């Protein structure tokens, strides 16, 4: 029997990312787990309204979303533990400017360079609705068809209630392959 535990955000775990924007001639970044797909042509980055990076994103309308794997987890964790208003985080990651002008973390296995199309405000949060200008993937994480291979990429996941980082798991089966194997 299920127990009603109230109105809680229980859609975790989520992949963690580092969101990055250019603050003048220096990059700044923050750790973000509230990133999602809102269509085949849009992604959403939701940040608490007081974040330092929000003002920069609103000004430049450019950002990058950088997938975190175990190799960059310590730096990503630090990026989320200090504010860019008090700490210069520009040296934390090596980066390159993407083709659309957003900074992209060199060691991130997958990065999306985005343009902000709209901002959706809710109490205490600003959600940036973005189009994807470019997707950069380390070649070792592409399959023979040129698609991202998440068997090798292995993004780090974040689970909110316990504030823990998790690894991705095993393959359970192919999507839409369970037809006829369910009780109707």
Number of helical stretches of at least 4 residues: 3
Distance between the termini: 20 Å
Helix content bin: 10-25%
User: Rounded to an integer, what's the Rg over CA atoms?
Assistant: 18 Å
Number of strands: 12
**Strand percent estimate:** 35-45%
**Largest pleated sheet:** 7 strands, antiparallel
Topology pattern, helix = H, strand = E: EEEEEHEHEEEEHEE
Task: Please tell me what the overall shape is.
Answer: globular
The strand order across the widest sheet is: 3-2-6-9-10-5-4
Return residue spans where pLDDT drops below 50 for at least 5 consecutive residues: none
Average pLDDT for all residues: 94
Classification by helices and strands = mainly beta
What is the quaternary state of this protein?
single chain
